[in-house]
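Q: Hi! First time asking for a complex rather than a single chain. Here are the components, and I think there are three in total. Is that enough to go on?
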Amino acid sequence: MHDTHKFKIPVGPQHPSLKEPESFSVALKGEKILGIDIRLGYNHRGIEKACEERSYTQDLYLIERVCGICSHSHSTCFVQAVEEIAKVEVPQRALYIRTLIGELERIHSHFLWLGIAGHEIGFDTLLMYTWRDREIVMDLLAALSGNRVNYGINTIGGVRRDIKKEDIKEILKGMDTLEERTLYYIKIATEEVTMIKRLSGVGKLSKKDALRLGAVGPTARASGINRDVRKDDPYAAYAEVSFKVITDDHCDVYARAVVRLKELLESFSIIRQILEKMPEGPVAVKVPRKIPAGEALSRYEAPRGEDVHYVKSNGSEMPERVKIRAPTLANVQAVKRMLEDRFLADLPIVVAAIDPCFSCTDRMVEIDQIDSGERRVLVWQELRDFSIEWHRKNGIDFSGLNKKLKLRK
Amino acid sequence: MRPGRILRLVLQSFFKKPVTRNYPVVKIEMPQGFRGKLKFDPKKCVGCKMCMRDCPAGAITISKTADNKFVAEIDLARCIFCAQCVDSCMKKALEMTKEFELGALKKHDLTVITKDDS
Amino acid sequence: MVLFQILVFPGVIFLAVFGMFMEFVDRKVYARLQNRVGPPWFQPFADFIKLLGKEELIPEQANFRMFRLMPLFSFTSVATSFLYIPVWGTHSLLSFNGDVIVVLYLLTLPTLAFFIGGWYSTSLYARIGSVRTLTQLFAYEVPLFMGILASALLADTWSISEITLFYSRHPWYWASNIIGFAVSLVALLGKLEKVPFDIPEAETEIVAGAFTEYGGRHLAFFRLTLDIEMVVGCSLMAAVFLPFGLGFGMVWGFLVYLLKILFIVMLLSLARTLFARLRIDQMIVFCWKYLAPVALIQLLVNLLLKGVLVQ
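A: Yes, that's all I need. Here is the structure of the assembled complex.
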């Protein structure tokens, strides 16, 4: 190292502050950040391709496992797209149950985020307390759907389970406890000196930049942009419940924390309204196995932002193309802008403030011609050939392996 | 702006019992409807193989041993506990129990074979 | 007899065992304040023994001699500083006029050892952590010194044993040092690198700071140094700011000492639970803008009091 003031430090792929692997290569001068290089792709599992080889029913469970925290969001978004292609009318009770589980998931995700944010700034007490409260939601979800994560409540044409009267009482009791605790955490986040010092003024993203870089979800709403898919394009039962879209004008990490905390209060109110207004009726309609040809795009407000699924079917039992755009992909472009002229100590909390879920994100594989600057799109077979050639040039030969995965016996 | 805002909660917790459940000593009961280990009733099975068709992971295999007698081989390592097979079975021959402590020391023990012994 | 006192009590073995016991108290109180169970009493001992058995990996580009020397260096300097602090009664094992400065100097040496160990590890994280250690030293050192020396000022002597003697002869004079006690406690949080000042070892930013490349025996001794540093720092606080109950003889006196140390350690654990970690620039601003002036006020108060008392 010739100039001991400037050097490059790798944050990731393995780092104690990142919950999921991602590579940030940070150029530092002392403690000041000069620039960042972001590379994604460490969590890519080939889910979109795997969806094309399984039937729609099997795909439900595969798509649900894209992410552990926003699993219901992905599952519902996919099912909505399929139901739109099949022109199926889902019963009202099913829509209400989907919304209920969706809001419970939002509560669980925001509590998780609070804990992680506390941990990143060294405030482990907040981590322990918020995760203790999260257990209440997880137990509720286990009683309702049979599992604490990956609920599996959706099926094409409705939901798989109904909720009972005793469950409703438990949910309302849980909501009361959690509301009281959330109000206390709002007081902590807005009044505790060290938290304000670490969160204010950090990771500033002006409204113009947020619109230009395409931020979604609480990251955008904390910069004053009033965008929420639940209000702009209502799906499930959101058209029939009344709630506010929370925005904040501070444009920094503090604002993102406040937006998420206040969204928790809105979620409690939405759940209470749903439980009051829940209509009687069947919970699912029968949908044929073969979905007619067509395509649909469906949007959903996941806890992290806007989740977009595109499904194309060709009349058979298996989809032709499934494309997922996760919210973190839209938000991660803004991280570079947020960290300009900040300190190294701000990096973990700024990355945590966009609520990164890189398992959702690693979807796209785009190959740039670096020297000419133009881009081309490769078909599956071209991509495979390119990869084999690249590995062969680097001394790895795959021609000995010729196994195909056996799915159905 | 107050420093130490969380003091009240923290001091209250000092005098209460900890929230941690002493897990291996204290057994936890899962709620009704929990999706744990799969159970197969060979007397009800008619061999339609809808469960095999719908399983996302290829975890269940139904084979015929004799006339109207079927055996199920469930691979617990592949099962994702989604209970789609339970919904797909028209004769209600499959059921999810509450058992979730399914660790084993040998991979062989993870394949559960249930057959009709009558 | 002297050898026994140096090696066993109140020497190295007593310090090590007591230090690990205090680490247990700290972790248990921290856990209970967070509504958790916390580790059993033998956890720090188990950690130490486990670390002794692990493999040591030294990076290829690191300076072997410095890397290996630093844990030993820091351990011996904190152990030596305990010789000058009275445990029960008003006499320490060794004392001379000026030993409060020597103790404070010996407590600064481990910080320097962390810096050198981290720097010569040549890992990027370790370098950042070691530079942060020194930067933090600039911030908390002056308030710490001023707080302790204010108490020494009133007693008109630079020897810790004499300080305790003075205060046990004039009870209630220690109440004038309350501000200094608060300032020194906050500065002690900085010295021991505990939240809100655990910036040099920020796990979520720079993995483990200066200790990143250490493992095995060396890490065991570094951690033991941190534990003993906590005991020595708290003993210094107890001797200089809480010098009452000193005339009881060996057994009761030791019990009083134990209670004082427990009290201070619990205050440190409480501070750990209540706050988030500050950034290094915020910490320097805080120490120089708020802590140092308050320590100056304490000095002024003691000067005025001394003037009044002499008359």
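A: The first strand of chain A starts at residue 6 and ends at 11. Let me know if you'd like any chain examined more closely.
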